[in-house]
Specification:
alpha/beta, FAD/NAD(P)-binding domain, 2 domains, 5-stranded parallel sheet, binds flavin-adenine dinucleotide
């Protein structure tokens, strides 16, 4: 097995990995991007057909390349995929698709990165940018295992047509739950079951997209803003007013989380029961970090141990693309570039100071 050296290996060639490579280049590093899939569009091709961005094009760009089209328009999923391909094609970086990283091991001088295809690489720095949207989270809801109807995760959802005329229960109250619920309501009877009431955030304030205001006020990238923006009760849903109107119409509707599921029924918290055909879990995702093994130091919930994207377990290891890694904008198109810069700059400092404390090669 031959080994290739690089100054930083970026695992994952979605938006987070590509932005990291771009920033690494601008810092004078020599990035190598290893992407498992045969293309560099991350998870976007797997999201539902009607998905449009919640931020306008002018606030959805990765570092170094504007998002094309109407700057105030909200790009579609397919426009994001096209943008990411174009971005990768213009990146001055070594990008290798079809390379799934199988194992990363730490040595005195850095890391060895081995792919499932048997290729090996070494680097003093590793950034894991494998997304946190790869492993659908399916919570253990009472009675779910015995439910005889269809159970899906929002990651399985593509379009409303297969659900025509069915009774659908969506679990969750975030952006995906609301968008899918409203789309489905044109074809089916839909209820969102949520722990907390839905929270809507106006998409536009004083005629301008909210992202303009969150960026101008610094809220978008402020590390301390989490409690302010989520109130500890989930991420608010951006709404131009159409979502609220849709819920006001009664289909979809929202109810508190049910007591339990029975065979083909849901039992609501007031004790009433109702027949349900489909349970759709819009309950989020967890990252897949098996390739890092013990280096990630996963906590009980499956999240890697880190501080603002810098591993607190392994020097030289960082993350880009984790939700709320540093701020509201982390894990979004507009936010990953700043996080990548933060992480790479600090990791470089960290490894330089480690170099100073290491005995010289001759002394070892
Ligand atoms: P991913 O897109 O998941 O890319 C990770 C890449 O890593 C993949 O290509 C994968 O193949 C690769 N990989 C994984 N494991 C390995 C391995 N072991 N070795 C090599 N490669 C590996 N963000 C916005 O900015 N605006 C939006 O409007 C928006 N809407 C969203 C709607 C939905 C339904 C969801 C789920 C997310 C949305 N996001 C949005 C959030 C985020 O921008 C996307 O989820 C985005 O895909 C995350 O990019 P990423 O690069 O971090 O991860």
């Amino acid at each position: 097995m031959s080994t290739t050296d690089s100054s930083v290996v970026v695992i994952g060639g979605g938006q987070a990995g590509l932005a990291t490579a771009q920033v690494a280049r601008s810092l004078g590093l020599d990035p190598l991007v290893l992407e498992a899939a045969d293309r560099t569009a991350g998870s976007w091709p797997h999201y539902y057909d009607s998905l449009t961005l919640f931020s306008p094009a002018r606030r959805s760009a990765l570092p170094g390349m504007a998002f094309p089209g109407d700057p105030d328009g909200y790009p579609t999923r397919d426009e994001v995929i096209a943008y990411l391909h174009h971005y990768a094609a213009h990146l001055d970086a070594d990008i290798r698709t079809g390379h799934r990283v199988h194992q990363v091991t730490a040595h005195a001088d850095g890391f060895e990165i081995v792919t499932s295809q048997g290729a090996a690489f070494t680097a003093p720095l590793v950034i894991s940018a494998t997304g946190e949207f790869s492993r659908p989270h399916r919570p253990a809801l009472p009675g779910l295992d015995d439910f005889t109807g269809t159970v899906l995760h929002s990651s399985d959802y593509r379009s409303p047509h297969p659900f025509a005329g069915r009774r659908v229960l969506i679990v969750g109250g975030g952006n995906s739950a609301v968008q899918i619920g409203i789309e489905l309501a044109g074809h089916a009877r839909v209820t969102l079951a949520t722990r907390h009431p839905l929270r809507f955030m106006p998409q536009r304030i004083l005629g301008r997209d909210i992202h303009l205001w969150t960026q101008r006020t610094g809220l978008d990238t402020a590390t301390w803003a989490r409690p302010l923006l989520t109130g500890g009760k989930g991420t608010p849903v951006m709404d131009t007013g159409t979502y609220r109107a849709a819920f006001a119409s009664g289909n979809p509707d929202r109810r508190p989380l049910f007591t339990r599921l029975h065979a083909d029924q849901v039992e609501w918290d007031d004790g009433t029961r109702e027949k349900i055909d489909v349970v759709l879990l819009a309950t989020g995702y967890r990252p897949t970090l098996a390739h890092l093994g013990a280096l990630a130091g996963l906590d009980d919930q499956g999240w890697p141990r880190h501080r603002r994207g810098i591993s607190t377990v392994q020097p030289g290891l960082g993350y880009v693309g984790l939700e709320w890694q540093r701020s509201f904008a982390s894990a979004t198109l507009r936010g990953v570039g700043a996080d990548a810069r933060y992480v790479l700059t600090r990791l470089r400092r960290q490894t330089r100071s480690l170099d100073r404390t290491r005995p010289a090669a001759a002394e070892r």
